[in-house]
Design goal:
Layout lengths: L1 H17 L1 E5 L4 E5 L4 E6 L2 E5 L3 H5 L4 E8 L5 H9 L11 E5 L4 E11 L5 E14 L2 E10 L3 H13 L2 E2 L8
Antiparallel strand pairs: 1-2, 2-10, 3-4, 4-5, 5-9, 6-7, 7-8, 8-9
Length: about 170
C-alpha cells in the first residue's frame, strides 16, 4: 500500500515540479510556466508563452498571451462580465463568469468561432483572466486552443492563467 501511495503522489505532483516561475518586473506579473514552454516578449505591454512543439501551435491552435490593458469607467470588470454573459457575433455566452470584486479579478471561459482559409469554421475555447493592477490598469491573461484539442491543455492553461499573480501599481515597473 505505501508503494501505491508513493507512486500516486509522484504522478500527481510531477507536473508541479517541472513548472518554473517567471517574473516580469515591467508588467508586474508572476506566471507559472510549464517545462519546455518559452516566454517571449511581444511588445512592452505583452508577453507570449509558447508551447514547446510546433504541432501544439499549429494543429492545436494554442495561444497564450499576458498583457497590460487600460479599462476606463465605473466598475469595468462588472461591465465585462455582463458583456460576456451574452452571445456576441461569433462568441457563445461564457460558460464560466466568476467576478471577485474584493480581489479585482474576473475569470471567463467561453467558446468562439472564426472562419479560416477555404471557409473552414474553427471553434476555439478561451480561458481569460482579468486582474486589477491599479489606476485603471489591468493584466489580461488569455489562453486559447482549438475546442477539439482544449482538453489536452486544460491543466496547463489553469496553471498559467489562473495562477497569474499581479503586483500592485507601486510594485510594478510601470
Amino acid at each position: 500500500m505505501p508503494f501505491v501511495l508513493s507512486v500516486l503522489f509522484s504522478v500527481l505532483f510531477s507536473g508541479l515540479a517541472t513548472a518554473a516561475t517567471y517574473r516580469n518586473p515591467y508588467l508586474g506579473v508572476t506566471i507559472n510556466v510549464p517545462a519546455a514552454w518559452q516566454v517571449r516578449p511581444h511588445s512592452d505591454e505583452m508577453l507570449r508563452i509558447v508551447p514547446p512543439r510546433q504541432e501544439d501551435r499549429e494543429r492545436g491552435g494554442v495561444q497564450v498571451q499576458v498583457s497590460r490593458q487600460l479599462l476606463r469607467g465605473k466598475e469595468p470588470l462588472s461591465r465585462l462580465a455582463a458583456r460576456y454573459r451574452r452571445a456576441d457575433d461569433t462568441r457563445e455566452p461564457a460558460q464560466v463568469v466568476r467576478l471577485d470584486r474584493l480581489r479585482g479579478r474576473l475569470v471567463l471561459s467561453y467558446r468562439e468561432g472564426l472562419y479560416v482559409q477555404n471557409g473552414l469554421w474553427i471553434v476555439s475555447q478561451q480561458l481569460v483572466v482579468w486582474q486589477q493592477q491599479g489606476n485603471g490598469r489591468y493584466i489580461k491573461a488569455h489562453c486559447s486552443a482549438n475546442a477539439a484539442e482544449y482538453a489536452r491543455y486544460r491543466r496547463v492553461f489553469a496553471d498559467i492563467c489562473l495562477g497569474l499573480a499581479v503586483a500592485r501599481k507601486a510594485e510594478a515597473g510601470a
